Amino acid sequence: MDFFVYSRDAPDTESLRDDGILLEQHWSYMDEFADSMIARGPTLAPDRETATGSLHVLGLPSVEAAIEFVEREPNNRAGVYAEHRIWAFANLLGRTMWDSTGDADEPRFLVIGRSGRDHGEPVSAPVPLDALRVELRERLILYGGLAEPESGEMIGVAVALEAPGKDAVETLLRDGAAGLDAFRGVEVHDWECGGRR
């Protein structure tokens, strides 16, 4: 089963993230999951230097294993993160971020759209891949549905893509018929692919 794990940084934890020993512990921990990793990397402040959170999309055997993945993660144990979201993920691209062939010089972004089911709104599923415009499909790094891990109830969509800037992301997603207007909450994060540097 694939899981989408997004961890939001706690305030004033930049010095923890910059600690070389903790960074190596984080990378070593992620090495244990290399074979099942679909995507990973930090979300960033507008300066594209300061981390605001971490994304990990990976295959794990159960919800309990996903919770354990989060609990054992060195940044989490050191207090870097304030909160975590864990959802089941349907990988509509059928590939990993390492299979992406886009322009490495363009900025990358992570978009999370969630249904407003708490307000009685209908739950929306992601638009099928072949229904997206070619220009959007060619920029995708990650694309898939988000669901509650226990019930399997569809609650949203996740998109990682490259684009010249946030305005271009919004245009691509709107004009690309991605259907994000069906989701009550849409977050657009600056993001970069993670891994050892």
In words, what does this structure look like?
The chain has 197 residues and is α+β, with helices and mostly antiparallel strands. The chain has one domain (2-191): Dimeric alpha+beta barrel (Alpha-Beta Plaits, 2-Layer Sandwich). 23% of the residues lie in helices and 34% in strands. Strands 1-3-2-8-5-7-6-4 form an eight-stranded antiparallel barrel. A hairpin with a 6-residue loop joins strand 6 (140-147) and strand 7. The two termini are 28 Å apart. The mean pLDDT is 90.
How many beta-strand segments? 8
Indicate the CATH architecture: 2-Layer Sandwich
Secondary structure class reads alpha+beta
Give the overall shape: globular
Percentage of residues in helical conformation = 10-25%
CATH fold descriptor: Alpha-Beta Plaits
The string of secondary-structure elements, in order, is: EHHEEHHEEHEEHE
Beta-strand content: 25-35%
Average pLDDT:
90
CATH class: Alpha Beta
C-alpha Rg (nearest Å): 16 Å
Q: Going across the biggest sheet, name each strand in turn.
A: 1-3-2-8-5-7-6-4
**What is the fourth-level CATH superfamily?**
Dimeric alpha+beta barrel
**Biggest pleated sheet:** 8 strands, antiparallel, barrel
Report the end-to-end length measured between terminal Cα atoms: 28 Å
- So how many helices? 6
Low-confidence stretches: none
Number of domains: 1
Topology of helices and strands:
Layout: E1 2-9, H1 14-17, H2 20-31, E2 37-44, E3 51-59, H3 63-72, H4 74-78, E4 81-91, E5 108-114, H5 134-137, E6 140-147, E7 154-162, H6 166-175, E8 185-191
Antiparallel strand pairs: 1-3, 1-4, 2-3, 2-8, 4-6, 5-7, 5-8, 6-7
